[in-house]
């Protein structure tokens, strides 16, 4: 039997990375079972929802319900790491670190050359990932061979004043720890999943013997999600010091980022390109995850008196507005959205505000027969690839929707995990 790849799951939420790697059996629908990606074993996880009141820890409670009372450390990760450095607690050695983290300003306040190394902005969760990786490597250079991260795709082009700088800082940090990197923007619906969710997945491996241009089209990410390159293939140099990236990367203020849909970094050198997805499998739709109408609570059906408001919010508009800071007049416009949402298409991206009865431009509304209704939490669970009822662990419907808005498509992680395991 192959040795298990031990995993630490940071910002674990309700366990999307863990399910994607370890697989699951859906007791309510055997056809929805997800085979494990390989012999992965999550041995440590952290989840903390600020502000830190007990009522806000519904995601960690869900994680415990499914994986056991001791399966997750439900404390602020910054506090956990500081206590480890003070010798007040232990963190186990792992082969792989996974996690999703917010897109923020990752600028660096202290260069590598100064004693103590990189110092990033306080309260920014990327630096806790960097610190966790460094802790693992300080314990043993054989630890944390792999790292798999997920973020919104705008990470590749933030901030607006210095396009691509934040991602350059992350790449520089990973290179400083000895990692080579693949990344890929994945639109889940383009590869058969029932939700249109576009996210960037960042895969890093230490001491990898990768050839830059070959890896772009034959690496793990390209095998998991095949594509044809579109347009020109670009090369970018990444500063060896993240502090230099903070000051100088794209400092001329170009309106576009040099980082495109797919890319590879080896020894601070990047190759990147736009992609055309290649997929020949089955495509799933919103209609595939709907619960029987007999299971839908009355409060999810939309009263006829509210339909006009729903339809208006989803229609196109062009409105004159005034900037509250400058007093200048401008026109705000937005396109129309489907009303109701089409059951024959993949769903739109689930957002954290999907819950609640009030009409909204961004919530889903569907029509079954002559009745309109919102999506129930069981359907949101399945649109993210979780088993039906995964978040039905005592939390409110609104909190269940919040958890799914923060989650990832489990099957995307599963496909990446399978390719990692093959490469081993």
Categorize the overall geometry: globular
- Structural class by SSE content: alpha+beta
CATH topology term of the largest domain: Rossmann fold
Low-confidence runs of at least 5 consecutive residues: none
Number of E-state strands? 15
Assess the beta-strand content as a share of residues. 15-25%
Fourth CATH level, the homologous superfamily of the largest domain: Vaccinia Virus protein VP39
What is the name of the CATH class of the largest domain?
Answer: Alpha Beta
Q: What portion of residues is helical?
A: 25-40%
Sheet with the most strands, sense and barrel status: 9 strands, mixed
In the residues, how many domains can be counted? 2
Write up this protein:
With 424 residues, the protein is an alpha+beta fold. It folds into two domains: 5-281 and 409-423, Rossmann fold (3-Layer(aba) Sandwich), CATH 3.40.50.150; 286-386, no CATH class. It has twelve helices and 15 strands. It has helices at residues 16-22, 58-67, 77-85, 126-139, 165-176, 212-218, 220-224, 242-248, 304-313, 377-383, 397-406, 410-423; strands at residues 5-10, 40-45, 96-100, 108-110, 119-120, 146-152, 179-187, 198-206, 227-237, 262-266, 269-277, 317-322, 329-334, 366-368, 371-373. The strands form four sheets. The protein has a nine-stranded mixed β-sheet with strand order 2-1-3-6-8-7-10-11-9, with helices on both faces. A two-stranded antiparallel ribbon has the order 4-5. A two-stranded antiparallel sheet has the order 12-13. β12 (317-322) and β13 (329-334) form a beta hairpin. α1 (16-22) packs across α12 and α5 (165-176) runs antiparallel to α8 (242-248). The radius of gyration is 22 Å and the shape is globular. The chain starts with a strand and ends with a helix.
């Amino acid at each position: 039997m192959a040795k298990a790849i031990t995993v630490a799951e940071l910002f674990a939420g309700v366990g999307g990375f863990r399910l994607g790697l370890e697989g699951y059996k859906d007791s309510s629908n055997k056809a929805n079972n997800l085979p494990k990606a390989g012999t992965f074993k999550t041995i440590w996880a952290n989840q903390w929802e600020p502000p830190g009141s007990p009522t806000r820890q519904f995601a960690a409670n869900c994680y415990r319900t499914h994986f056991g009372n001791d399966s997750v450390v439900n404390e602020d990760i910054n506090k956990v790491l500081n206590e480890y450095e003070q010798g007040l607690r232990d963190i186990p050695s792992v082969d792989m670190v996974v996690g999703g983290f917010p897109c923020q300003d990752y600028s660096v306040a202290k260069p590598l050359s100064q004693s103590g190394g990189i110092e990033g902005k306080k309260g920014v969760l990327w630096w806790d990932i960097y610190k966790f990786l460094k802790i693992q490597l300080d314990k043993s250079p054989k630890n944390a061979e792999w790292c798999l991260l997920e973020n919104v795709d705008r990470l590749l082009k933030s901030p607006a004043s210095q396009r691509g700088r934040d991602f350059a800082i992350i790449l520089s940090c990973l290179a400083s720890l000895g990692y080579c990197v693949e990344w890929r923007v994945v639109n889940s619906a383009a590869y058969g999943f029932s939700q249109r969710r576009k996210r960037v997945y960042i895969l890093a491996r230490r001491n990898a013997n990768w050839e830059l241009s070959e890896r772009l089209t034959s690496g793990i990410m390209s095998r998991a999600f095949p594509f044809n390159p579109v347009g020109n293939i670009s090369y970018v140099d990444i500063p060896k010091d993240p502090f230099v990236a903070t000051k100088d990367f794209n400092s001329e203020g170009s309106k576009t980022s040099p980082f495109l849909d797919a890319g590879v970094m080896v020894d601070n050198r990047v190759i990147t390109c736009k992609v055309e997805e290649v997929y020949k499998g089955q495509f799933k739709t919103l209609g595939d995850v709907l619960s029987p109408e007999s299971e839908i609570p009355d409060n999810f059906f939309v009263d006829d008196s509210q339909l006009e408001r729903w339809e208006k919010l989803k229609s196109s508009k062009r409105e004159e507005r005034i900037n509250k800071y400058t007093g200048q007049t401008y026109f705000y416009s937005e396109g129309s959205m489907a009303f109701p949402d089409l059951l024959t298409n993949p769903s739109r991206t689930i957002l954290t505000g999907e819950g609640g009865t009030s009409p909204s431009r961004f919530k889903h509304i569907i029509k079954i027969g002559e009745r309109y209704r919102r999506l129930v939490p069981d359907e949101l669970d399945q649109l993210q690839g979780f088993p039906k009822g995964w978040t039905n662990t005592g939390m409110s419907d609104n909190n269940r929707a919040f958890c799914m808005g923060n989650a990832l498509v489990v099957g995307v992680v599963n496909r990446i995990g399978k390719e990692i395991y093959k490469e081993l």
